[in-house]
Amino acid sequence: MRYFLALAVLGLAATLTIATYPLAQEKPAQQTKRKANPALQLVPNAKAFLESLNAEQRAKAVKDFDSKERVDWHFVPLETRKGLPVMEMEGAQKEAAMKLLRASLSQVGYEKATTIMNLESLLRQLEGPGSEARRNPEKYYFTIFGSVAPKKKWGLSIEGHHLSLNFVIQGNTIVSSTPQFFASNPAELKDTYGEKFPKGLRVLKDEEQLAFDLLSSLDSNQKATATLPGDTPKEIRGAEEPQAPATEATGLAAGKLTDAQQATLKKLMEAYTSKMKPLVAKKRWTAIDDAGFDKVHFAWSGASQPGVGHYYRVQGPSFLIEFVNMQPDAAGNPANHIHCVWRDMAGDFGIPVQK
User: Fold this and answer.
1) Which one of 67, 164, 241, 276 is at 20 to 30 Å from 342 when CA atoms are compared?
2) What mean pLDDT is predicted for residues 49-68?
3) What is the rounded CA–CA span in Å between residue 169 and residue 146?
4) Using CA atoms, how far apart are residues 325 and 309, in angstroms rounded to an integer?
């Protein structure tokens, strides 16, 4: 999957300003320390980004840490939103912004994020005249909340259509990395749209296919327990709300799965955690293990094959995954438009949930 995405990103980036950039230059000792701690990657790249901006741009890009805008997250194609968009940056500023994006994610996360950005140009092509302002691969906004300093608590938002990344950093620690939202339209390219958009491209392949693999491995009793009652949800719950839905986990408990099924469930969860830097992913898995992996639940609704609407959630005491594929894509192919999110049940945006 990583190899396939890498090829796709390299091809797509050729027509856009979005590209793969190295992190800010550092001495060897600093690089070793930085690689082990993602917070140390973010600080110099956030500072470099801010230093590249003029006063007017900084006024858009920097907000108070306590601003209500910090928890105001969206993934729809809004006319405008918080922060400074890439389309209002010059060449070196764009490069600094993309370095900051790269510093916030793992390599696979960065590849998926930039591919999602690039898909905006395909949506413009599919939707035709009148979509130019709405579909722009540079309409992604960067916001710093607070002061970027070693002893300060500060936040980072990188957001646009189908992408919302939210971080809180304090000292040498990323204390929050949620909500983490990725989406893709089309979910799978059914045709080739020129050299840069090959047939078969699936940005969120693992997030969908591994869930189908797990579902198909369940016996009839397991499947009955995993199936949610009622109509298939049309959207993730709590979309654009500051905190995840405070509901108990439902569906089939991991403790009721076979070893092979548990392995598939873990791979599915890793499709989400692997978008983050290894230390952030490790922190999530530690919380899952401390709470008990057997308490994780898998729940499903809708069709058991692609092309027909389906939804799933994976929830444990410390986290919530939701995935929905109900909408047609821009070319009219049914159930080919994915939304998926990872949330922190202890509190998104570094804000503890009141129990």
Assistant:
1) 67
2) 98
3) 10
4) 6
Tell me the β-bridge partners of 180.
165, 342
In whole angstroms, what is the distance from residue 32 CA to residue 58 CA?
A: 31
Q: What backbone phi and psi angles, to 5 degrees, belong to 119?
A: -65, -20
Strand ranges inside 152-293, DSSP E: 153-160, 163-170, 173-176, 180-184, 252-253
- Residue that the structure tokens 């540079």 belong to: 138
Cβ 72 vs Cβ 82: under 8 Å = yes
Tell me if residue 153 falls in helix, strand or coil. Answer: strand
Please give the structure tokens belonging to residue 302: 């809708």
With beta carbons less than 8 A apart as the criterion, state whether 158 and 142 touch. yes
Q: Does residue 306 have a cis bond before it (omega within 30 degrees)?
A: no
CA distance 261 to 181: 25
| Closest of 95, 110, 229 to residue 163, by C-alpha | 110
pLDDT of residue 36: 63
Closest among 162, 255, 157, 271 to 213, alpha carbons compared: 271
Mean pLDDT calculated for residue range 95-104 = 98
Mean pLDDT of 322-326: 99
Question: For the chain, first and last CA: distance in Å?
Answer: 39
**Tell me: the pLDDT tens digits for 222-268?**
999 999 999 999 999 999 999 999 999 999 999 999 999 999 999 99
In the chain, the amino acid numbered 206 is D
- Evaluate the omega torsion of the peptide bond into residue 334 and state whether it is cis, within 30 degrees of 0: no
**What confidence score (pLDDT) does residue 4 get?**
37
Angle (CA) 210-215-221 rounded to 5° is: 155
Task: State the virtual CA torsion across 92, 171, 103, 58 in degrees, nearest 10.
Answer: -30
Instruction: Please say whether the beta carbons of 255 and 295 come within 8 A.
Output: yes
DSSP letter assigned to residue 240: T
**Residues 6 or more apart from 353 whose CB is under 8 A from it?**
243, 246, 345, 346, 347
